[in-house]
Design brief:
By secondary structure, this protein is an alpha+beta fold. About 30% of the residues lie in helices and about 30% in strands. It has one domain: Alpha-Beta Plaits (2-Layer Sandwich), CATH 3.30.70.
Length: about 110
């Protein structure tokens, strides 16, 4: 049985918390591969809490799961990360072959975009 944590990612603004690996080495090894998403925090918790408190809009917290067979969880994970980041979604999402489990915070004005 595979664990869901292998497909885990934390949503945050890409420019704040994450980076894209565009190294030539990764592109040479397989020209059809997409750049690898490398997730890492570059700000401490206090800084992120101050930014969240300063937002001029309200957020809605959503929690959901769905057991479903996913043939390509890695591609879904990357797609969700990029789409939800553009909406300003924050939270933790687990994507595995067995399904998805998420606890996310969505700007209220972006709820229709999910």
């Amino acid at each position: 049985m595979r664990t869901a944590t292998k497909g885990c990612f934390t949503l945050a603004r890409v420019h704040d918390l994450c980076s894209m690996d565009h190294s030539l080495e990764s592109q040479r090894s397989s020209p059809k591969k997409r750049p690898k998403l490398v997730l890492s925090n570059i700000y401490d918790r206090a800084t992120l809490e101050r930014r969240l408190a300063a937002e001029p809009f309200l957020r809605r917290t959503l929690s959901f799961y769905r057991y479903v067979r996913l043939e390509d969880p890695k591609t879904l994970r990357e797609q969700l990360f990029l789409e939800w980041d553009a909406l300003g979604v924050l939270g933790r999402v687990y994507v595995a072959r067995e399904g998805i489990n998420a606890q996310i915070s969505v700007p209220q004005h972006q709820l229709g975009g999910l």
